[in-house]
Amino acid sequence: MRFRTFFLLLAIVPLTFALAPVGPVLGAAAEMGVRHRIDVMVSAEPDAPVLARLKGAKGELSFTVRLSANSKESKFFGMLRPSFPDIVVPDGPGKPLVQQTKLWEEDVCHQRRGLPKVTVTQLGGHFAQGEGRIEISAINRHIGVLVPPDELTPGIKLDQGSDSFGLFYAFRAQSRNSRLNVDLKIYPIDCFL
């Protein structure tokens, strides 16, 4: 009985080694992952008070963006506070107040798990000096609090598109009275894990 078991093991062990892959499998495709980049652009609606009264005036804008981008490989949650101190109001409605600018980019390639969650929560600034000065203070609506005079409506989904950086998904936050738009473009960039 002991000899049968011994000879059976002698037959199974070489067979097991022959079927098991040695080292990494050659020719296996690398797994694709993603990392994200978020750009911002600020524009004014054609009927915005800034465009109607202050063409060529100087001003500044700042806003707050809440960002949540979590995956197994990379975790980020926080408030981004970009500021643009030297804005010149354009002479027409088709030109942006703030050109497209990189706001945030991931360093780590990670598994695909959806887009980062971004929300513009506050927009502030001013244009011109003296009597013609326009102050901007737009915030989101909050439960249990009166609607703000210049309500900021975040999360307006825009059409997806592509440009020189690649495919993007776009979202807009718009202020009701000052008629300013903060557009966020989220670029999913393919990479290898």
Outline the structure in words:
This protein is mostly beta strands. 12% of the residues lie in helices and 49% in strands. It has 2 helices and 11 strands. It has helices spanning 2-19, 49-53, and strands at residues 32-44, 58-70, 75-80, 83-88, 98-105, 117-127, 134-139, 152-157, 161-163, 166-175, 180-192. The strands form 2 sheets. Strands 1, 5, 8, 9, 10 and 11 form a 6-stranded antiparallel beta sheet that branches. Strands 2, 3, 4, 6 and 7 form a 5-stranded antiparallel beta sheet that branches. The radius of gyration is 27 Å and the shape is elongated. The two termini are 52 Å apart.
SSE inventory with pairings:
Blueprint lengths: L1 H18 L12 E13 L4 H5 L4 E13 L4 E6 L2 E6 L9 E8 L11 E11 L6 E6 L12 E6 L3 E3 L2 E10 L4 E13 L1
Concise account of the structure shown:
With 193 residues, the chain is mainly beta.
Determine Rg (CA atoms, Å). Answer: 27 Å
Overall, the morphology is: elongated
In round numbers, the mean pLDDT is: 86
First CA to last CA: what distance? 52 Å
Name the beta content range: over 45%
Secondary-structure element order, as H and E?
HEHEEEEEEEEEE
DSSP helix count?
2
The SS-based structural class is: mainly beta
Poorly predicted ranges (pLDDT <50, ≥5 residues)? 22-28
Total beta strands: 11
Largest sheet: 6 strands, antiparallel
Portion of residues within helices: 10-25%
Question: Notable features of this structure?
Answer:
about 190 residues, mainly beta, five-stranded antiparallel β-sheet, 2 helices, 11 strands, elongated
